[in-house]
Specification:
22 strands; Bacterial_rp_domain; rod-shaped; 4 domains; Immunoglobulin-like; 7 helices; Bacterial repeat domain-containing protein; 3-stranded antiparallel beta sheet; 3-stranded mixed beta sheet; 17% helix; single chain
């Protein structure tokens, strides 16, 4: 009893390492319990002192490494720091891939990869995040040559006189001094007045058909050069006044067969005069009205547009049937007037252009008279 002693646990081995002391008959502090060497004094009773050992836990093995091949992109750790070695990236490493910047000749399209599954969203994202799998990965940022936008069309000057120019749909032209080539346009001559009536178009830089040249409204496409378009008007022509005029002119409504169907030669209209002076425009309007009333089917108004003229001609002819099955892109397939329009086009009294009849285009009285004379001359 009272002897001072030293206890030293055995050395650790590969299969066992010291853990603590287990003893009876001796009080050890917590520090002494886990110390390999302890000092104590023999008490007045037996002591049993055992050094306890445990099997050591093996540390986790270093993760396996795999190769990460990347092209046209930069790869970093998820936090943006550098990857130590792309040839040996540990499994489970969280990474970020960023495709190279676009240039004038190439823009990023998508990722092409082997050894890695990407979602559709990741495949087209410039930056993707992923975890290194347990195998090699090959990641390529694919680029394409950018498509250049079509160059703005060249613009040219459109000079117009005595008419209104709009786009084909009727909306305004932004600038007549800079009309883009290829623009689809509509030109409408000014309205007739008591002192002038539309005659024809005079233009430079634009080819018009004979029908377009005398139509009050025309459609055309802006060419690759300047255009000058003028609506030409004339004062209605009248014959020399009769010194003893009939105060109530009455054109012959039923001209003799084979005779001149206009009832008055080229003049077409009768002219009233007072004291030997021609009334002029007023006489023109009165005369053309009287003439047209005399030849049009009873109760039919004087045609004001191409559709009304077609219907008037067809009605005057007795509404004949036609073999034509033509359709027009500006006339409804179930329109009541379609049969009349087919007939006048089929007979050549009127024409259609590029599949369009332009039923709403205005017709002047002289145009109605000219067309009617053609119809009468054909018998």
């Amino acid at each position: 009893m009272g002897t001072e002693l030293v206890a030293t646990a055995d050395e650790d081995t590969e299969t066992s390492v010291f853990k603590n002391w287990n003893c009876t008959g001796l009080e050890l502090t917590e520090e002494q319990r886990t110390a390999r060497v302890v000092y104590f004094t023999m008490p007045d009773h037996d002591v049993n002192l055992v050094a306890e050992f445990v099997t050591p836990t093996k540390p986790d093995p270093a993760p396996e490494n795999y190769k990460l091949i990347v092209s046209y992109a930069k790869v970093t750790l998820k936090d943006g720091s550098a990857v130590a070695d792309l040839m040996a990236v540990p499994v489970g490493t969280e990474l970020k891939a960023t495709a190279d910047e676009d240039t004038e000749t190439s823009v990023f399209k998508s990722w092409s990869c082997t050894g890695l599954e990407l979602t559709e969203e990741q495949r087209t994202a410039r930056v993707v995040y992923f975890t290194m799998p347990d195998h090699d990965v090959n990641l390529v940022a694919e680029f394409v040559t950018p498509t250049k936008p079509d160059p703005a069309p060249e613009t040219y000057k459109l000079i117009v006189s005595y008419a209104k120019i709009t786009l084909k749909d009727g909306s305004a032209v932004a600038d007549l001094k800079a009309v883009p080539m290829g623009t689809e346009l509509k030109a409408t001559a000014d309205e007739d007045t008591e002192t002038r009536v539309f005659k024809n178009w005079n233009c430079t830089g634009l080819e018009l058909t004979e029908e377009q040249r005398t139509a009050h409204e025309i459609y055309f496409t802006m060419p690759d050069h300047d255009v000058e378009l003028t609506a030409v008007f004339e004062v209605p022509a009248t014959p020399d006044p009769d010194p003893t005029p009939d105060p109530k002119p009455n054109p012959d409504p039923t001209p003799a067969p084979g005779g001149d169907s206009d009832g008055g030669g080229a003049a077409i209209v009768a002219v009233a005069a007072v004291g030997g002076a021609a009334i002029g425009v007023g006489a023109y309007i009165a005369g053309t009205t009287a003439y047209l009333k005399s030849v049009l089917p009873e109760g039919m108004a004087i045609p004001a547009n191409r559709q009304q003229l077609a219907v008037a001609l067809w009605t005057a002819a007795g509404k004949p049937a036609t073999q034509s099955t033509a359709l027009f892109n500006d006339v409804a397939a179930d329109a009541a007037e379609l049969q009349a329009i087919r007939w006048v086009v089929d007979t050549g009294l009127m024409s259609a252009q590029d599949g369009s009849f332009k039923p709403g285009s205005r017709v002047g009285r002289m145009e109605v008279i000219r067309t009617w004379k053609t119809y009468q001359q054909r018998g």
